[in-house]
Amino acid sequence: MVRELGLLRRARWFYALVFAVLCLAVAGACVGFALLGDSWWQLLIAGVFGVACTQFAFLAHEASHRQIFASGPANDRVGRLLGTLLVGISYSWWMGKHTRHHGNPNRVGKDPDIAPGVVSFRAEDAAAQRGFLAMMNRRQGYAFFPLLTLEGVNLHVSSIRFLFGRGKITGRWTEIGLIAAHLALIIVPAFVFLSRGWPPHSAVCSWRSSASTWARRSHPTTRACRWSARTRNSTSSPNRYEPRATSADASGRAR
Questions:
Q1: Domain boundary at 173, 193, 213, which?
Q2: pLDDT at residue 61 above 80?
Q3: pTM strictly above 0.85
Q4: Is 241 inside any structural domain?
Q5: Are residues 122 and 208 located together in one domain of the fold?
Q6: Domain extent at residue 36
Q7: For the segment 201-251, what is each residue's pLDDT rounded down to a tens digit?
Q8: Which of 23, 69, 120, 134 could form a Cys-Cys staple with 125, CB 3.0–4.6 A?
C-alpha cells in the first residue's frame, strides 16, 4: 500500500531545491562576512553558517538512507561531500554508527546511541558510573538541553578519532583531506577578514567610542583607542590637536 501510493518514491527535485536554497544562503553569508569585516556583527553571520551546516548534515543523512538517488554509490558520493566537506563529519563513521542504530534500535549493547556516557538511559548504567560522569548522570535531566549545544563538537571529535584509529576504513585519506579542507574554509577566512587577537581591536574601539558618545565623553578610555581617534582626526582635520593661537600670538604675527 505504501509503495503503491508512491510514498517511497524519491523526491530528487525537492532535495535539489533545498540544496540550491542552502547554497544561496551560504553565498549571501559569505558576501556579508566579507563586507562586515572585523565586527561583532559577524556573530549573526556565524549563526547563518551554523543553520546552513545543520541543513547540509540533514541532506547527508538522507543520502545515507539512500533517499536521494536510486544508486547506492551515488548517494555515498553526495553524502561524503555534504557530510565530510561541508559539515566536517566523517561519512564513514556516521554510516557505521547510524546503520548499527537502525539495525538494533534501543537494544542494549548493540545500539551505539544508547551507550552509557555523560547521559545514561538505564538506571544500572548510571549506577555504574564514577566521578564526573556519575555527577552528570545524577543531574542529566537538568543538563540535557545545555549538553545538546555541545553535541556538534562531540560528533566532530568522534569522527576524527575514528579516522585516525587502527580499523580498516574505506576512503580514510579522502575523508581526512575533506575534513582538512573544511577546517581551512573556516580558519583561513577568519584570519584574513577578522583581527588576529582577542578581542578584536577595532571592535573594542568601536564599542568604546559608542559608549563614550552616549556618555558625552570627548575621548576613548584606552590608549589604543585614543591613538586610533587621533589618527582618524588628524587625517580629517590636521590642526585639531594643535594648540589654539592666543590673541597675543595673533598680534605678534600681525606685527
A1: 193
A2: yes
A3: no
A4: no
A5: no
A6: 12-193
A7: 444 455 445 545 555 444 445 555 555 555 555 555 555 445 555 555 545
A8: 120
